[in-house]
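During the reporting period the student researcher (J.K.) took over the structure-prediction task from the postdoctoral fellow and processed the backlog of single-chain submissions. One of the processed entries is reproduced below for the supervisory committee.
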Amino acid sequence: MQKIFHFRHRFRVAMLSTAWLFGFLFLMGSVGSQTYDGYTLYFPQGGTKAYLVDLSGNTYHTWTFSASKQTCYASYLLAGGVLLRTVNHQGNSFTGGPISGEVQKVDWNGNVLWDFVYSTTDYCSHHDIHGMPNGNVLLIAYERKSAAQVTQAGCSQGIEMWPDKIVEIQPSGTSGGTVVWEWHAWDHLVQNFDPAKSNYGVVADHPELLNINYHTSKDWMHMNGVDYNETLDQVTFSSHALNEIYVIDHSTTTAEAASHAGGNSGKGGDLLYRWGNPAAYNTAGTTDFNVVHDAHWVPADNPLFPNALGGFNNKGGTGGKTCVDLVNPPYNGYNYTLVPGTAYAPATYDWRNTYSGNTSPDNGNSQQLPNGNTLICIGMSGFIYEIDSNQVQVWSKSAGSTLAQSFRYPPCFITGTYGATATGSPATIAPGGSSQLGVSVTGGVAYTYSWMSNPPGFSSGLQNPVVSPAATTTYYATVKNGPCSATDSIVITVDGTGIGESSFRNEIRIFPNPATNWITVTGKRLENTSFTVTIFNALGKVAGTFRNQHTLDLSGLPGGIYYLTLLTGNREYAGEKIILVK
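J.K. obtained the following structure tokens:
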């Protein structure tokens, strides 16, 4: 039994119209007016505490910080009970808004594991952060541009400006960090004010660029939300001042991110998608956002909004009310479809929830939960509520202080206890026979199921699929509940396909196991014959193939659980678990 925990979002590009329809049908059939089980994280802005509360509103856990390390804007819970948080750094040169300048990782007991300062006279982090799957951290930061630089860039006003950049920090030690990737808004400008200055062009012809003369001020963009999509390797962010959310390519090098070519999209660091205010690129269309926060992707396995992009619309609802908007982007591989001369689709939001109470002119976020519910934080009111698929409120909490964000985490993510056990009945079948697969969950519930096979060729989203393999096959079941994920496997043996697996196992040897970088495969069955060894990761994807090699180099693979299949002639040995320790 194997446990794997992922933080935040996993994404799969699919036929979205079909996926959304399936989501609605799923909800109609299986999701009722129930809360999503778990603990809610909230943290008063400018405060020295962060809380996890249960569904009864009782405090389950509290983090307490020193008076000089007040929470700035954002906090997220990572696997292992570690809190990733922004801090109001003392002595910042930049002022205004949620200027942070510092980020921390704090363990469950309040011990500071990492305290990193990103603040000088030339730049300073602010607002949101995001914990990357590789352990790095994305930061939003202002960078200072002089009046002379601003004028040369084609701005209509000769003022100092603070355009935004996004940097990826690789932590080191208890306070160190290295910038391993960065993107600058300043590298992707257009202006139609002065043909003698840089960036001159027709704004409407360049939706991939930012008009420096739209909402001209020192705090020109005022980014306030950032999120990462691992499968697309893209970043989304929101702009308070420009009333838009954006998507850029993270697969670029830093040099490519400063250009207009390269990366998976082929467009370098140019904007791949933007939504919410077509006027910002001189194009006709509906302006939906009126102050936006919290740009984020909805996970692909969400039953109602798979792969949607979301934003917290502070004053864009009916009568200027606060609302949450979700949109279904026009995905086209690593790019987004756009008809020249028109605004990016959709023409307006695909889903909206409007808050019935007082408008929150600033702050706020939403989280789309694995059971189809949505958690919403009305930041300035300090009010958190959960709605079901019919937008009926099923839970609420008044924090009594100003908030920027709030998140719900299932118990399995807090306790680290989540497992899967795969079964097959019968486990041995005759040629042409069938077996009923199944997977059970410990430490929680599962909202999605995913089966894969080795040899490849089978996949299913059912909990208990029926299979009829032509040869002995290993089936891998992955179960998920939001950030909790676990995988287990079962071998279905087909009699009459050559030497039995147990006999084959007795005649070959695989060592060492656990291993670090190398494993050796040997035995009489491999003498004077051709054979192929295939290594699969825990999700059933091929991690390496070796032909007629007894010593296998696995040094390029990350630590974790893998499965080995050996094929020689019509004989197959499948499902040996290999543990790599790095």
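The committee noted the following: Residues 16-30 form the longest helix (15 residues).
J.K. will present the remaining backlog at the next meeting.
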